[in-house]
Amino acid sequence: MLLKVDNLVKSFGGLVAIDALDLQVNKGEIFSIIGPNGAGKTTLFNVISGKYRPSSGKITFEGKDITGLKPYNIARRGIARTFQVTAVFSQFTVFENIVIGHQLHAKSGMFGAVFGTGQAHKDARESREKSEKILEFTGLTDISDKPIANTTQEERKRLSIGLALATDPKLILLDEPVSGVNMQEMDGIIDLIRKIRDAGITVCLIEHKMRVVMGISDRILAINYGKKIAEGTVKEVSSNQQVIDAYLGVKDAA
Amino acid sequence: MSMLLQTTINGIVIGSAFSLVALGLTMIWGIMHISNFAHGSFYMIGGYVIWTIITLLGVDFWLAILITAVVMAIFGAIVERLTFRPAEGPFSTPLSSLIVSIGLIMIFNNSVLAIWGARPETLGAINIQEFHFLNVTVTLQRVLIVVAAVILIALLQFFLKRTTLGMSIEATAQNAESARLMGINTSRVGSIVFAMGVSLAAIAAGLMAPLTNINIGMGDHMTTYGFVIIILGGMGSIPGAIIGGFILGLISSLSATYLTANYYEVIVFGVLILILAIKPTGLFGAK
Amino acid sequence: MENLLKLYTTKHLLFALLIVAALVFPLVASTYTLRIITMCCIWSMLAIALNLIVGYTGQGNLGLGAFFGMGAYTTGLLMVKLGLNFWLALIIALALTVILAVLIGLPTLRTKGAYFAIATLCFNIIFTTVVIQWDALTKGQTGLMNIPNVPAIPLPFGGQIDFHESLAANYYLVLIFLILTIVVIYRIVNSLTGKSFLAVRQDEDLAEAIGINTFRAKLLSFTVSAFIAGLAGGLYAVYLGFIAPAITSYGITFTAILYVVVGGAATVAGPIVGSFLLTVIGEQLTAFGTLHLIIYGVLVVLSIIYLPMGLVGAYQMFWPQIWQKMKRGKVHAA
């Protein structure tokens, strides 16, 4: 078990966004979180990644308590994330984005750069080499020098995933990785997600499109109003009556 | 006791001027997201305009205030159209409006110097009748400043809440995009708000003019005090600017009298930094 | 690759040429010109400092004037009151400036955007007030006079570099510190640390999500910026021999912002170009007498309207396109 969430509660003022939620993500799987709009999916990501402090409950990663740590600390522990509104550094090129994604592994700091120490050169070289690998992995090598303004939505989606991968995570949280792309591009990104899992990185994703979720997930968690409705394999969850009522049923009717 | 009362009254008088200045600043921020660091210079020009109208034309004080308000509103609208507006664009940053302000401060202060000279001007005796009570002396002008400020604030509230134009200003402040979709000409709203803000600052300067002299430096502190007030009150908040104005007036008056005359600015601005360190979005700020 | 190499060498050649020009400059320049250029170098350092925190890191620090003043006043006071020599005084002054920067950065950097700008502005006003009011120490509004020169540096083969007589010696001193500052800043902004400053400016949430401690990055940038401003201040004090409270005020910060934005924010050359250009234009305009600051103000407003990204920013944006067009034009002609 890689990530474990126990009895997690997050409330804003009087509004409970996540209500006594338990979940666990196993090493090497693709774990999907589904639920209607406003079910608390993104809030859950924000709590796990440290953007919000939980009101109560416990989050354990690799057996260590990470509850309430700052986002940068959580990233350094090995949890990377993407954002629902595709976030990349808009004034960097594609390549620069990936390079900055790897900077948390640099052993030298500002003074190393100022005095041009060997470690600083080594860090710079390593981050470049790592970035080239990531570009290759995410299929962005050809556009590596492009400014972000000249990239397509799909390329930015890939880049945001690449940026997260550049931190060398053990677990990657993807917030709606295929929203806003066409069918063909979607298949490409789904392949990329599988490739990430096959490379040994555990994937946890939020997605609306049932076809995607059912196709790639090893296990699924369904939530509504911040509460767990079901957790299990694709088959188990998709046959759960509550899930069908709350989510799938609406889709079928539509 | 009488000193405390006297100091409090003075604080309320200064606070009235602060409120009017901060009101304009906060409205300009709320609608246009401009940091108008030239606001104090508009205040200063307002002082010179009213002095000119009264001394050269021999007009009555209150009529002079009215004329100043109108003249400065037109002036503000023109300045906004010629400078802040064209500086907005795809490459503009939050610094752009600061740079425009710096340029305007140079232009305004040195134009005033060229036109009126470096010597401070005074209005002479206006409304100097005194009221005595509880060992406290208050001149009529001081009472009138507070009364005028309160009436203005009430009128402004009425304008914003009850008139079509006022409501379209409120709508633009809340969400410029949807205001535009509702058919509100947000560019025109911006000009009007800027003109109003400048006019309010000029009225404040006019009201205060009989109490002090009129000089080039009179606006410098108004800008910083204005920003301190709207930061405390939450940027863009109108009640925040009104309340914050009176609070700052009282703090500066009380600390200048009771704590230290030389270092009272250290206290005023130090308190602000402390408040922000504890509550990074201000006393009444969101989040 | 070949093009890249070409670009790389042209850039370095240009830099080398500029340095040579700067070195031989005192031989050809009049005393008046040399004085102005020395001041340009000091303002360049201040503008570079401002550019790091405001341009690269995106934090609108309006309190840099206080750090410039801290460097100037501490250096000056240590020399005048305690009789320390310049070098020792400068080192102590810079250490104190850094401590002050950390103490001010810790509370103010908790705020963001306009709130940070006003918090630092308030700090600057407090600092200037203290300098004015603490008469016994700082001589208040009168200013601190008779700050000694940099002690003469003996040369290995006899003779010495005398800072009392020679304007050129002072110019070289300031120039060396300016070049050092440029090299340091160049290395910082091209390092991963510099990129993380830029990342903070662009998207703080995303920067945190990829493991950047944004508060620490901001504090580092703020402190390095204050250090360079303090260095510029120390040089200012010893070069002019006289300092007044006005040089600690936020007006100094505003001047530096002007230089940075007109030159080009978040570029290495921008603040230097801005400082030199505006200082020289300002000097030329004095021919217009009382009107000169009005004209200067008009130029400032026009420049932000027509060149919002600054001269160097505009050059970097448009030059590749013009270059492409020229190359295409040549092909057509051939």
Number of domains of chain B: 1
Distance between the termini of chain C: 25 Å
Tell me, briefly, the overall form of chain C.
globular
Low-confidence stretches of chain B: none
Tally of alpha and pi helices of chain C: 14
Gyration radius over CA of chain B: 19 Å
Would you identify the regions of chain C where 5 or more consecutive residues have pLDDT less than 50?
Answer: none
Radius of gyration of chain C from CA coordinates: 21 Å
Helix proportion of residues of chain C, in percent? over 70%
| Largest pleated sheet of chain C | 2 strands, antiparallel
Across the major sheet of chain B, the strand order is 1-2
The third-level CATH topology of chain B is ABC transporter involved in vitamin B12 uptake, BtuC
What's the tally of helices of chain B? 11
Return the CATH class of chain C: Mainly Alpha
What is the spatial order of strands in the main beta sheet of chain C? Answer: 1-2
Which assembly state applies to the chains in this document? Answer: heterotrimer
What does this structure look like?
The complex is a heterotrimer of chains A (254), B (287) and C (334). Chain A has two domains: 1-78 and 171-180 and 202-254, P-loop containing nucleotide triphosphate hydrolases (Rossmann fold); 85-168, P-loop containing nucleotide triphosphate hydrolases (Rossmann fold, 3-Layer(aba) Sandwich), CATH 3.40.50. Chain A is built from ten helices and ten strands. Chain A has helices at residues 41-48, 71-77, 94-101, 110-115, 118-138, 153-165, 183-198, 210-216, 234-238, 241-253, and strands at residues 3-12, 15-25, 30-34, 56-61, 64-65, 79-81, 171-175, 202-206, 219-224, 227-232. Chain A has a six-stranded mixed β-sheet, with helices on both faces. In chain A, strands 2-1-4-5 form a four-stranded antiparallel β-sheet, covered by helices on one side. In chain A, a hairpin with a 2-residue loop joins strand 9 and strand 10. The radius of gyration of chain A is 19 Å and the shape is globular. Chain B is an all-alpha fold. Chain B has a single domain (2-278), classed as ABC transporter involved in vitamin B12 uptake, BtuC, CATH 1.10.3470. Chain B has eleven helices and two strands, in the order H-H-H-H-E-E-H-H-H-H-H-H-H. Chain B has a two-stranded antiparallel ribbon with strand order 1-2. The radius of gyration of chain B is 19 Å and the shape is globular. The model of chain B has no long low-confidence stretch (mean pLDDT 88). Chain C has 334 residues and is mostly helical. Chain C has one domain: ABC transporter involved in vitamin B12 uptake, BtuC (Orthogonal Bundle). Chain C is built from 14 helices and two strands. A two-stranded antiparallel sheet of chain C has the order 1-2. Chain C is globular, with a radius of gyration of 21 Å. The interface between A and C is medium-sized, with 39 and 25 residues.
